[in-house]
Design goal:
Elements lengths: L27 E4 L2 E13 L4 E5 L4 E15 L2 E6 L2 E5 L5 E5 L5 E12 L7 H14 L7 E2 L5 H13 L4 H20 L13 H16 L6 H7 L4 H11 L5 H19 L4 H7 L5 H12 L3 H14 L24
Antiparallel strand pairs: 1-2, 2-8, 3-7, 4-5, 4-6, 4-7, 4-8, 6-9
């Protein structure tokens, strides 16, 4: 039985169809305190034996070999090139490129102009990380390395995003530019971390997430167990978090505050019956709402409604939004004692 050689499809072949599609875009990325402008962004092919003689750039050029073989000379040192390798030529690096005499060589190229540009609105953590990366970019070894972190597929992602014009395609392309830059650095990097990413205060994060979930679902029969499950916590752990933020406002009190705030809004701004308001805002009965409201507010829902409407009629143009600060034991849900 004679075996047959099956040629693997070249995944980047489609990029030859519209070779300059990415270069027709004005692509600029602000990253930390740097501006990154794309000069070239394409797939090119070197026919067998083709030579690109010695030259250099004042900018950064990222070279990737997705198929074929050849040779590169970087600052006087020759290196073989083969599928899966990458190399970087930075400002002033003299280099020479040559395809194998018998095989074509494809190259994915990203040519960037990177200049410092102070951005007062930059996220400080992102700015520190960008600075770390730029420092490493300037000292990377001048030699080829395996594309060990998968930068090459980013070219195809950017091309397909541009070709299909799918929603957010410009942002997607800019993200791929940063990804190629990072993955190139990672291919050479020893793994040391310069700037640690910011870490959360997990108790504060979980408390905030729980309250947001409660605000979105308070009209149902929401329980401590339901919210704890969303955070992969036990009910006891979640209750401990609430008491840690404010010992006087456990889960049940916060949930009650959320519901009362909504009730007050309906009493001030609508004409629904107390029974209907109780039903809509998560209270089991109108009688229970009346009990809770009187205990917390110092007056009944109907008296509260009349008082608020009287205020509105007396000062229709001057009545400020409800702050609740003037009523004893009033709900002030939006300002917990964190």
């Amino acid at each position: 039985m004679t075996g047959r050689f099956v040629r693997t499809a070249f995944p980047y072949e489609t990029m030859f169809d519209k070779g300059d599609i990415l270069e027709r875009l004005e692509i600029a990325v602000n990253w930390g305190h740097y501006e990154i402008r794309v000069l070239r962004f394409h797939l090119t092919s070197f026919e067998p034996g083709r030579i690109i003689n010695f030259h250099n750039h004042s900018t950064y050029e990222f070279h990737f070999i997705p198929r074929g073989a050849g040779r590169v000379i970087l600052d006087g040192q020759p290196y073989s090139l083969s599928e899966g390798l990458l190399y970087l030529t930075g400002p002033g690096v003299m280099h020479y490129q040559e395809a194998d005499p018998h095989r074509a060589m494809e190259e994915l190229c990203l040519h960037l102009d990177i200049v410092p540009k102070f951005n007062p609105a930059a996220d400080p953590w992102e700015a520190a990380e960008a600075e770390d990366c730029m420092q490493k970019l300037n000292v990377l070894p001048i030699r080829p390395a395996p594309d060990s972190h998968g930068a090459m597929p980013c070219f195809l992602e950017a091309y397909e995003a541009c070709e299909t014009k799918r929603i957010g395609y410009y942002t997607a392309i800019r993200m791929q530019v940063i990804a190629i830059l990072l993955k190139t650095i990672q291919a050479y990097d020893s793994g040391d971390v310069g700037t640690e990413a910011p870490s959360r205060d997990m108790a504060a994060y979980r408390y905030d997430y729980a309250v947001r979930y409660m605000e979105a679902n308070y009209t149902s029969g929401l329980r401590l167990e339901d919210v704890a499950e969303k955070l992969d916590l036990s009910p006891r752990q979640l209750q401990r978090i609430f008491r840690g933020v404010d010992p006087d406002r456990p889960f049940s009190r916060v949930l009650e505050d959320i519901r009362l705030l909504a009730v007050c809004d309906r009493l001030r701004n609508g004409s629904l019956s107390i029974e209907r308001i109780a039903e809509l805002e998560g209270f089991s009965t109108a009688a229970y709402l009346h009990t809770v409201f009187r205990k917390r507010m110092g007056l009944s829902p109907s008296v509260y409604r009349k008082a608020k409407r009287s205020e509105l009629h007396r000062h229709p143009a001057e009545t400020p939004p409800e702050s609740f600060s003037h009523i004893p034991n009033e709900v002030n849900h939006h300002e917990p004692n964190v």
